[in-house]
Specification:
Radius of gyration: 14 Å
Structural class: mainly beta
CATH topology of the largest domain: N-terminal domain of TfIIb
Strand content: 35-45%
Number of helices: 1
Bound molecules: FE2/S2 (inorganic) cluster
CATH class of the largest domain: Mainly Beta
Order of helices and strands: EHEEEEEEEE
Mean pLDDT: 95
Largest sheet: 4 strands, antiparallel
Strand order of the largest sheet: 4-3-2-9
Shape: globular
Number of domains: 2
Number of strands: 9
Length: 121
């Protein structure tokens, strides 16, 4: 992996100390909101668009997990998602996936490793 493809997000420790982090990105020039979080000790990232109505998962509440902490949850209508795959577990959108963004964790720093991704504020 060429270092130039890596875009530093934050330290692993910082990500562990917060329920989630938001980051503006551009993917192939398209501005998008990204979610980054730790789950079972690993970092994950998805475009923060629920496939139901293209709302942010945290649009109604400052939270992206359900009460169990085992599923991502869209606060608009309560659809839930597998945090490791982004697959929707709710009947209307069952099996559809949030758009995953590739990450690398190197020496305690979490990076985006997507081609054509730039960070925006
Ligand atoms: S917009 Fe996410 S569940 Fe409806």
């Amino acid at each position: 992996m060429l270092a130039s493809k890596l875009k530093a997000i934050c330290s692993s420790q910082e990500l562990r100390s917060t329920p989630y982090r938001e980051q503006g990105i551009a993917l192939k020039g398209q501005p998008l909101p990204a979610l980054i979080f730790m789950f079972d000790g690993n970092p994950y990232s998805y475009v923060n668009h629920c496939m139901h109505m293209q709302r942010r998962l945290n649009c109604e509440q400052d939270a992206i997990f359900d009460a169990s902490g085992q599923y991502l949850r869209c606060s608009m209508h309560g659809f839930i998602f597998d945090p490791k795959t982004g697959a929707c577990q709710s009947p209307v959108c069952f099996g559809q996936r949030l758009q995953a963004l590739r990450l690398e964790e190197i020496d305690g720093i979490v990076y985006f490793s997507e081609k054509h991704l730039t960070l925006i504020d």
